[in-house]
Amino acid sequence: MFVHDKTGRLYSPVTTKSRNYLTISMSEPSSYSMDQAYTEIIVVRHGETAWNANGRIQGHMDVELNEVGRQQAALLADRLSLEPEISAIYSSDLKRALETAETIAERCGKFEVIKDPDLRERHLGDVQGLLFREAAKVCPEAYSAFSSRRTDQVIPGGGESLDQLYYRATSSLQRIGQKHTGIYAICQRELELPKN
């Protein structure tokens, strides 16, 4: 993630030219003003892992990048090195995210990567480690919860609801934004925010 003024930009390791925007206010709604400083946070997803390539559900499982993922991280690092005024790099503590972040940090000025477990992707409970094609048969209740569109649906086996993920992720982004208001930071993370 990068931090600058006004918006949050999302990058994919593979497609860095397209941008989606997510804006999170860094202040209470009642204190909002048009000239208030914002922090731009560019969110990037980790590179590919063997589990991604094989269709295995990761969640909080600590899987490292495969060779394709390392190449994706290097390409992303090259692109992000063109961004001005980077002030910080954040990552979840999982190997795949951390390796992606460290590749970016090395290319963008040898930043120390700040680990934040709240930047992990969604905990997927009992379906973690299963292949997508087998999950519905092996753990039907957990897979049903995982596939549910209900934002309050918790996944059996310690998994999170989309609401819990959203609260955890946005709280982390707000903390980062408040810490870096008015400057530019880079934060790598793997967390996929739910669409509202």
UniProtKB/TrEMBL annotation:
Gene Ontology MF annotations: phosphatase activity
SMART domains: PGAM
Any one cellular-component term (Gene Ontology): cytosol
InterPro entries: His_Pase_superF_clade-1, His_PPase_superfam, PG/BPGM_mutase_AS, PGM_Phosphatase
Pfam families: His_Phos_1
Residues that hold substrate according to the record: 45-52, 96, 149-150
Catalytic residues (UniProt): 46 (tele-phosphohistidine intermediate), 121 (proton donor/acceptor)
Family membership: Belongs to the phosphoglycerate mutase family.
Identification of the protein by name: Phosphoglycerate mutase-like protein 4 isoform X6
Organism: Durio zibethinus
Phylogenetic lineage: Eukaryota, Viridiplantae, Streptophyta, Embryophyta, Tracheophyta
